[in-house]
Amino acid sequence: MQTKPVRTRHRSSGRNPQAHENPVSRKKIRTNHIQYDEKLAALHRHALQLSSAMTIDEIVKQTLDVAEFTLGFDRADICLVEGGCLKLKEIRGAPVVFSEMPLDGPGIKVRAARTRSAVRVSDTRRDAGYVDGKGYDWKGPPTSLSELSVPVIIEGQTVAVLNVESNRPNKFTENDQTLLETLALHAASEFRRLASIEAVRDSEQRFRGLLELVRVGVCVLDGEGNVRIWNKGAEEISGYSREEVTGHGKIWEWLYPEELYRNQVIRNAMAIITNRLYEENLETKIRRKDGQTRFVTWNFHSLVDQNDQTTGSVVVGRDITEQIRMQDEIERRSKQLEELVEERTRGLTDSEARLNAIVQSCPEGVVVLDPNGRITECNQAALQLFDCPSKDLLMGRDLLDLVAENDRGAASSTFTKITNSETLRGLRYTLLRSDSQEFPSEISLSAVEDVAGSPIMYVTIIRDLTEQNEMQERLRKAERFSVMGETVTMVGHDLRSPMQGISTAAYLLRKRFSPTDPQTAELLGLIESNLRYANDIVNELLDYTREIHLELTETTPKAVTEAALEKTNIPINVKIRDLTQYMPSITVDLTKTQRVFLNLISNAIDAMPDGGQLTITSSVSRETLELRFSDTGSGMDEAVMRDLWKPLKTTKSKGMGLGLAICKRIVEAHGGSIEVESARGKGSTFTVKLPIKPKTSTSSGEKARILNGLLTQ
């Protein structure tokens, strides 16, 4: 008997749903996969092109070009978030009907902006929130049947929305959404880059503006002695404009036409730059552009870059021609007085009166000493210098008694060595005011002789250097801060590009393969966790160097504290006592104030690894709100507290040491202050003082306070 063949039906195991697909279906899948890879490659090429864009319009145009290539659409547009609305920046494939959409209104783009997540609508006829491109009042059939909107997010906030539309339903796939999200990430990176470039430009403009405000000549030289910066004070001293001197070193030939003298000055300047010396009051004689001869003192300070390489020098010049003239005039008048005394003429009284007028009109402090060094006369400027209401407090005192103890020995040795005909200039000692407050000074000392050549008095000119020293220190700090800001911005941008690539790759791996292997999932999680940590470090550096802008809103101490506690991971062995009050209402930047509180709470928890208690209280003193964060942790010694507010100083194993420095800047930007009391083994108490109402606006007053804070840190 012949056996009939048995036809067996094979069931799918469920593990390989494509095992029995027909060849046409498999070919279509491979084709789609190749097209997706090509589109993804186009996106990466777009990222390289965007890095050369210098305006928002260029970024918008290139982004729409790539969206058109990768997705294909009937209509597409990009809107920016401004003033509570989505404002149309550019549209393709349709005329402009309305250019603004309120963020609290309907619309798929508005929904993506509010939720900060992509919105894909397969059929707009079934979406109640759809707004047709022809306007809010359009009653006809929808002009688009499918729509895909993706927000552009920077630091957790929506700044723009990418939107594509099609006349066909179910046009956009999950891969299209992934591509548009990747495109939005690239656009966000470039928006952030433009903002960073603008911040650097603003910082440089503020620095140059500060140079124009100082009353001394400031010039910045490169390593070859060429002029890079030449402020208004330098123009007034030399007579040469900024346009004439910058970019070359010819100014030295113009100021010092005598070759031997010029070579000596240049050798001294180059030695200072090369050896990183700090030279004070290098006195030279220059010839101005108008032919006048002037005496100028130069202060040099070497500049180094982040690699500790010498890049040039900051030179501060001061015209001392009038000071020397005054000194010479006093000496000349003194000699006239000696001659008049010798001749016993009636003109003695008139000469003394003229001399006294000169001394009293001198802007510097003038003190006359007897041969034993005791004060016999002084002008009004000297009384102001030593903060004395009357001459009686100075008359008869030894000049050495007004010298600070640390400099008294050196001053005594120098004063005793002066010869009868010698004039000492540029002596720098720390002096004492009437309340024992110290101040830096520059002293010139000359002797007045009788007919026999014996000294009968000494004339001393004293100049207060407090303002000059502070200005020089501010200039050095401003230069360092400008270099640091530029470096941080460049490094942040250079790091974010590879970090974005790694993040995109990890995201695509997770989306494409959906790994079920625990080890693979753990590795991807580790990559993403470390990327977030690296991004936090870059953000902290950028936060510290950029200008603080406050967005003030009314809230309460309790609301800010509770919001910060909700974001804190509190260990079970740590007890938090929130005793803050609901009153008074305060006007602060809610996000930045929460950041300060969150940092202080996290630090307190870190200080109590074995458990403890953190108590948070609030109180009002006059118009100031005081909040105290008291922990029972390990506390801090004096060495740690000295560096507590300095950036890049930390005792933790992780972190950049910028947390408290940023907190201090935020609190001071509000017009407040932050203080700490601590002792080793007795815990720590941080006190934040904030004005209940802002003292200044966040515009000009805020910028001035922030700039001053940067220069004094």
Provide a short characterization of the protein structure.
The chain is of the alpha+beta class and 713 residues long. It has 19 helices and 23 strands.
Question: What can you see in these coordinates?
Answer:
The chain has a six-stranded antiparallel sheet with strand order 3-2-1-6-5-4, with helices on both faces. The protein is about 45% helix and about 25% strand. By secondary structure, it is α+β, with helices and mostly antiparallel strands. Helix 2 packs antiparallel against helix 4 (about 175-215) and helix 9 packs antiparallel against helix 10 (about 350-360). A hairpin with a 4-residue loop joins strand 7 and strand 8 (about 225-230). The chain has 19 helices and 23 strands.
Topology readout:
Elements: H1 23-50, H2 56-70, E1 75-82, E2 85-92, E3 100-102, H3 108-115, E4 119-121, E5 146-154, E6 157-166, H4 174-213, E7 217-222, E8 227-230, H5 232-238, H6 242-245, H7 251-255, H8 259-275, E9 278-287, E10 293-304, E11 310-319, H9 321-343, H10 348-361, E12 365-369, E13 375-378, H11 380-385, H12 405-416, E14 423-432, E15 438-449, E16 455-464, H13 466-513, H14 518-545, E17 552-555, H15 557-566, E18 574-579, E19 586-589, H16 590-606, E20 612-621, E21 624-631, H17 638-642, H18 659-669, E22 673-678, E23 684-691, H19 700-712
Parallel strand pairs: 18-20
Antiparallel strand pairs: 1-2, 1-6, 2-3, 4-5, 5-6, 7-8, 7-11, 9-10, 10-11, 12-13, 12-16, 14-15, 15-16, 17-19, 20-21, 21-23, 22-23
